[in-house]
Write a structure and sequence with these properties.
Blueprint (H helix, E strand, L loop, with lengths): L4 H7 L6 H24 L3 H32 L4
Amino acid sequence: MPRPLSVEIITKVPPLLHTPLMSGSNAISGITIIGALLSVAAEGPLSTMLGFLALVLATVNVVGGFLVTHRMVGMFKKRD
């Protein structure tokens, strides 16, 4: 059974690049948060609900990304 394309892409990324890639995905999610805020402010119940859902999901993604990035950076610190 062939592996999914996403698994092949991730396994080919060197470990030193994982932290910058996480930071980049956090920046993209930050842009998503701005778009979700604009959608929440728009008129209409559908855009408000979808904007709120996007806001929650993007916020979870950003917080999780920062936690993973912080943990990965901690792995590179010298131990006493």
